[in-house]
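Blinded run. Sample ID left blank on purpose so nobody reads anything into the name before looking at the predicted structure. Input follows.
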Amino acid sequence: MEARLLPFITCPYHPTATLEVAQIDQMTDSTIITGHLRCSFCDVVYPIINGILDVIGKRQPASIAQIVNDLPPAAWAYERTWRPLSLSLLTGEYFPLNRELHLITGLAGAERGGLMIDVGCSNGLYARALEQVRRQSNASGFVVGVDLSMAMLDEAQRRARCDGLSISFVRASAQSLPFADATVDVLVMGGTLNEIGDIPAALTEWRRLLRSGGRGVMMSLVRATTRPGQILQQLLATGGLQFPSLAELNQYFAAAGLQLRAQWQYGVVVFSVLQ
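Blinded prediction complete.
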C-alpha cells in the first residue's frame, strides 16, 4: 500500500477517524509491505500484509458466491477463463475486454487522475486499466482496488506487479469503505453489485465518498427478459446473486442520492455513469 494513501484511509466503523501508523515492519520506497494501522477512536489495529491493508479480519461469507470468491483456485481462474468471455456471452454480441475497458476508463475520465477506487475489484481488471490510462496521461493521483476476498486481492496484487503498476489494495466491505468523506474522484465497479448483498448500503457509500465533480461508473447486470435467462438467474440467485430490473436499479441509485448522468444497456448488461 502506498504511504501517500494514508491521509485518506479511515476506520470502517468510524469514517471520520483517519487511521494512524502503529508500526511499519517492511517498506520499499513509498510502499508499505507489512505493518499495522490503528484507529485512534476505537483503538482497533488493522494489519498490512504483502502490501494489502485488511480492515475486515475473520468473517463468515454471506453467500455461496462469496465462498467461491474466497477460494484461491477461483481467484486464479477468474481472469484466465470467465472474465474475457463474460460480456460477449451476457450481451449476445462481440464485447471483448478492450472494448469494455476503453468504455470504463473513458466514462470515468481516468486521464484526469486523482483518487480512483475499483470497488469489488476481483483480479484488479478495472484498477489496472485506470492506472495505465493515468500513467499514459501523466496525471497525478493513484488507484486503489478493494475487495472482500483476500485470494482475489493476492491475485490482483500479483498481476499489478507483473505489469509494473503501482496500485494499492485494501480488503474491505463495499458497505463500509475505509475512506474519508468526499475524497474520491472516480469510483468504478464491474458486476460486483449483483453479489455484494446490501445494495442500498453500498451505494450510500458511493455517495459519501464521491467528491464534488467526481464520477461513478458501474457495469452491472439487470433482470433477464427471456425465459432461459430468467431460469439461469433464478438458479444463480440461490447462490446469493441479485438481479434487479433496470427500473429497480435506477431507484437504488436515486434513493442513495446518486444522480444518473448516462446509461447504456446491452442485453442484461448495463453501464451507468453516476455523480
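Unblinding after everyone has recorded impressions. Residues 1-50 form one domain.
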